[in-house]
Amino acid sequence: MHASPDPVIETRGLTKDYGSRRALFGLDLRVRAGEVFGFLGPNGAGKSTTIRILLDLIRRSAGEVLVLGRDPRTDGVEIRRRVGYLPGDLVFTSRRPARDLLAYLGDLRGGVPAAQVDALAERLDLDLSRPLRSLSKGNRQKVGLVQAFMHRPELLVLDEPTSGLDPLLQREFLAMVREARADGRTVFMSSHVLSEVQDVADRAAVLRGGRLVATEDMDALRRRAARRVRIRFAAPVAAAEFAGLAGVRDLDVDGDTVHCVVDGSPDALVKQAARHTVLELDSAEPDLEELFFTYYTDQEEVGDAA
Ligand SMILES: Nc1ncnc2c1ncn2[C@@H]1O[C@H](COP(=O)(O)OP(=O)(O)OP(=O)(O)O)[C@@H](O)[C@H]1O
């Protein structure tokens, strides 16, 4: 599959009112072909509203929307056929086994080999013979994931895909997302926390109170993010040697041990440390959540001032 230069999802000035209450305020969103895009925001930010508009499950109040080059308002059926969609609120009332539902949905999408369904169910440790209405939240989520992935759609739109999955299954799910991207497919997934998407997303956008407050390239974000570093030397070191090094802050030197936070590249710190004998070095993963959180806080201040 070759990547198209056109965005797979594009919204311009997307606005949604529920009666007199505005849920989305002029959203401009572009998701590129072949990328994994994290759509982040706290509960009530408008993630599900946006996603439902993309699938034409609800209608926008204003603005423009294109999904796979089509307008959901006129081509909703085609979009829903071509997209793998996981709803955020999956409820099943049927007594029939999960296998029947998946076979039915597979037929609607032009036929999906049973072996493909079985392989996904096995990966997610899902028993397809159980009646749908008896399934726990986690198992319902697995059925939702199988139906979203099983026809190998060119675009996956997943609303809170990791909710209800234990850590092992979350990892399996992320592997499925990586495989989809390796096949040239596009994944748009929402979450209320960055940590669930940070390892897999190429870019992420933050939605707050119905407004897009940031869109970030994850690699760039990682490079900018702060890391907490601890270095223990063979002999005591002087604080003055480490104070003022490029990127180093919150320095605390306690005899032979240096604690600090490094913004961006640790190069200056590493070179200074290398003048001594280093016994131990720990560097905590950058806290991207904290970096993203600053956007939320900034926005809150703007909102409070208004
Ligand atoms: N059918 C509806 N009628 C009225 N208001 C609604 C409706 N659906 C959502 N809202 C409101 O619109 C806002 C956005 O909700 P939405 O469900 O899109 O947020 P979300 O980011 O998906 O959050 P969550 O993770 O809690 O679902 C919220 O204030 C919500 O109360």
Automatic annotation (TrEMBL):
SMART domains, sorted: AAA
Residue ranges of every copy of the ABC transporter domain listed in the record: 9-234
Record-linked Pfam families: ABC_tran (PF00005)
Alphabetized Gene3D superfamilies for the sequence: P-loop containing nucleotide triphosphate hydrolases
Keyword presence, ATP-binding: yes
Stated name of the protein: ABC transporter ATP-binding protein
Keywords: ATP-binding, Nucleotide-binding, Transport
Similarity comment: Belongs to the ABC transporter superfamily.
GO molecular function: ATP binding
